[in-house]
Amino acid sequence: MTTNNLVLAGTITRSRQFDSPAGIAHTVVMLEHKSQRYEAGMLRNVYCQIQVVLSGEHFNSVAKDLKAGVEIQVEGFINLQQSRNGQNRLVLHAENVELKT
Protein backbone atom coordinates (compact mmCIF):
# COMPACT_ATOMS: atom_id res chain seq x y z
CA MET A 1 0.00 0.00 0.00
CA THR A 2 1.46 3.37 -1.00
CA THR A 3 -1.16 5.96 0.03
CA ASN A 4 0.17 8.46 2.57
CA ASN A 5 -1.66 11.79 2.53
CA LEU A 6 -2.88 13.90 5.43
CA VAL A 7 -4.75 17.23 5.48
CA LEU A 8 -4.94 18.96 8.85
CA ALA A 9 -5.88 22.47 9.96
CA GLY A 10 -4.92 24.09 13.21
CA THR A 11 -3.03 26.78 15.06
CA ILE A 12 0.74 27.10 15.22
CA THR A 13 2.02 26.98 18.81
CA ARG A 14 5.79 27.08 18.07
CA SER A 15 7.92 27.85 15.05
CA ARG A 16 11.60 27.82 14.15
CA GLN A 17 13.57 28.22 10.94
CA PHE A 18 17.01 26.97 10.00
CA ASP A 19 19.13 25.92 7.05
CA SER A 20 20.47 22.37 6.84
CA PRO A 21 24.20 21.78 6.31
CA ALA A 22 23.31 21.23 2.64
CA GLY A 23 21.80 24.73 2.51
CA ILE A 24 18.15 23.64 2.39
CA ALA A 25 15.74 25.98 4.18
CA HIS A 26 13.54 24.31 6.80
CA THR A 27 10.68 25.63 8.89
CA VAL A 28 9.47 23.45 11.74
CA VAL A 29 6.18 24.25 13.46
CA MET A 30 4.07 22.58 16.11
CA LEU A 31 0.47 22.43 14.90
CA GLU A 32 -2.39 22.16 17.38
CA HIS A 33 -5.72 20.87 16.07
CA LYS A 34 -9.05 21.10 17.92
CA SER A 35 -12.41 20.11 16.48
CA GLN A 36 -15.54 18.08 17.05
CA ARG A 37 -16.40 15.01 14.98
CA TYR A 38 -19.11 12.40 14.98
CA GLU A 39 -18.04 8.85 15.74
CA ALA A 40 -20.55 6.00 16.11
CA GLY A 41 -23.34 8.57 16.14
CA MET A 42 -21.85 10.50 19.07
CA LEU A 43 -20.18 13.92 18.98
CA ARG A 44 -16.68 13.84 20.42
CA ASN A 45 -13.98 16.42 20.99
CA VAL A 46 -10.84 15.86 18.92
CA TYR A 47 -7.43 17.20 19.88
CA CYS A 48 -3.91 16.55 18.64
CA GLN A 49 -0.52 18.17 18.24
CA ILE A 50 1.86 17.26 15.46
CA GLN A 51 5.20 18.60 14.30
CA VAL A 52 5.12 19.90 10.73
CA VAL A 53 8.27 20.23 8.62
CA LEU A 54 8.35 22.53 5.58
CA SER A 55 11.46 22.01 3.48
CA GLY A 56 12.74 23.77 0.40
CA GLU A 57 12.65 27.10 -1.39
CA HIS A 58 8.98 26.89 -2.42
CA PHE A 59 8.00 27.61 1.23
CA ASN A 60 10.26 30.69 1.53
CA SER A 61 7.44 33.12 0.70
CA VAL A 62 5.14 31.79 3.44
CA ALA A 63 7.76 30.86 6.06
CA LYS A 64 8.00 34.40 7.48
CA ASP A 65 4.25 34.29 8.29
CA LEU A 66 4.38 30.98 10.19
CA LYS A 67 4.41 32.25 13.75
CA ALA A 68 2.65 31.20 16.95
CA GLY A 69 -1.07 31.94 16.82
CA VAL A 70 -1.40 31.71 13.03
CA GLU A 71 -4.00 29.30 11.66
CA ILE A 72 -2.97 27.13 8.72
CA GLN A 73 -4.08 24.13 6.73
CA VAL A 74 -1.33 21.68 5.79
CA GLU A 75 -1.35 18.86 3.26
CA GLY A 76 1.47 16.38 3.14
CA PHE A 77 2.70 12.96 4.21
CA ILE A 78 3.53 11.52 7.61
CA ASN A 79 6.78 9.84 8.52
CA LEU A 80 8.20 8.29 11.67
CA GLN A 81 10.98 10.29 13.30
CA GLN A 82 13.16 9.07 16.13
CA SER A 83 14.40 11.66 18.61
CA ARG A 84 17.85 11.68 20.16
CA ASN A 85 16.46 9.98 23.27
CA GLY A 86 15.04 7.13 21.17
CA GLN A 87 11.36 8.11 21.26
CA ASN A 88 9.35 7.71 18.08
CA ARG A 89 6.82 10.25 16.82
CA LEU A 90 4.91 10.94 13.66
CA VAL A 91 5.90 14.09 11.76
CA LEU A 92 3.89 15.73 8.98
CA HIS A 93 6.07 16.74 6.02
CA ALA A 94 4.27 19.56 4.23
CA GLU A 95 3.69 19.58 0.50
CA ASN A 96 1.22 22.47 0.59
CA VAL A 97 0.42 25.10 3.23
CA GLU A 98 -2.44 27.58 3.25
CA LEU A 99 -2.74 30.48 5.70
CA LYS A 100 -6.22 30.65 7.25
CA THR A 101 -5.98 33.95 9.16
Can you characterise this structure?
This protein is mainly beta. Helix content is 4%, strand content 66%. It has 1 helix and 5 strands. The chain has one helix at 60-63; strands at residues 6-19, 25-39, 42-55, 71-82, 88-99. The chain has a 5-stranded mixed β-barrel. Strand 4 (71-82) and strand 5 form a beta hairpin. The longest helix is centred in the middle third of the chain and has 4 residues, at 60-63. The N and C termini lie far apart (36 Å). GO terms for molecular function: single-stranded DNA binding. It comes from Shewanella fidelis. Pfam families: SSB_1. One of its GO terms (cellular component) is primosome complex.
